[in-house]
Design goal:
Order of helices and strands: EHEHHEHHEHHEH
CATH superfamily: P-loop containing nucleotide triphosphate hydrolases
Bound molecules: thymidine-5'-diphosphate
Strand order of the largest sheet: 2-3-1-4-5
Helix content: 40-55%
CATH architecture: 3-Layer(aba) Sandwich
Largest sheet: 5 strands, parallel
Length: 226
């Protein structure tokens, strides 16, 4: 049985929204703006991120971003990101969704598919299998792919970082970041019911307005106001 498992909406009362994209796409700003907008509506909203989001997963984050797992290769790296994800889901995401909260997460399984899967040349079978055992029917209801050209994203990330050292993933070359962008676009094209590509080269408030319109129409059951 190779068909993906259906997402069981009845098992959770809340809604799960993720943000994906390359470096410097503005994910953290948009996560903050969306959390503010949902909270202003009186909706319980939990902001979180990956890798991390639970104490054990934050420990794994340190090792991953320091590049300690990289020498083991992309398959092992994908498994450690997934191990962190299992804890994050169990400790934070699933309980929040069960009690009816909105969960807004900065990166999730699509990052493993893009960074380790596409860029690490892992097979679809490997990534599909890993995603199935790690995430199962807890895939996001809605995923925003924040899309910026690789050059622009890297320039933004460099500015934000200032004098701090680059992490393992920022240190990859421009070709890596171009392929990464294509990988995220490819995931979005294959999952149009879940994913929305957002042009993130525009001012943050314009990007946030597009995101809010999608959340209203897709998850809050309202037609967007003009
Ligand atoms: P972070 O500092 O949070 O970067 P960003 O602001 O770009 O989100 O670092 C997370 C890094 O980990 C980022 O470069 C993407 C990478 N990553 C993976 O390679 N695989 C994954 O499954 C996840 C969740 C992140």
């Amino acid at each position: 049985m190779n068909a993906p498992m259906p997402v069981s909406k009845s098992a959770r009362a809340g809604r799960f929204i993720t943000f994906e994209g390359g470096e410097g796409a503005g994910k953290s700003t948009q996560v903050r703006k969306l959390v503010e907008a949902l909270s202003a509506r009186g909706l319980e909203t939990v902001a979180t991120r990956e890798p991390g989001g639970s104490p054990n997963a934050e420990e794994l984050r340190k090792a991953l971003l320091a590049g300690l797992v990289a020498p083991l290769g992309p398959a092992a790296e994908a498994m450690i990101f997934s191990a962190a994800r299992i804890d994050h889901l169990d400790i934070l995401i699933k309980p929040a969704l069960a009690r009816g909260a909105f969960v807004v997460c900065d990166r999730f399984a699509d990052s493993t598919r893009a960074y380790q899967g596409a860029l690490g040349s892992l097979s679809d079978e490997f990534i599909d299998g890993l995603e199935r055992v790690t995430v199962g029917d807890n895939m996001p209801d809605l995923t925003f792919m924040l899309d910026v050209p690789a050059e622009e994203g890297l320039a933004r990330a460099g500015k934000r970082r200032g004098d701090e050292a680059v992490d393992r993933f920022e240190a990859e070359n421009i070709d890596f970041h171009r392929k990464l962008r294509e990988a995220f676009r490819d995931i979005a094209e294959r999952n149009p019911q879940r994913c929305v590509i957002i042009d993130a080269t525009r001012p943050p408030d314009d990007v946030a307005a597009d995101i809010w319109r999608e959340v209203e129409t897709r998850l809050l059951g309202q037609e967007a106001s003009a």
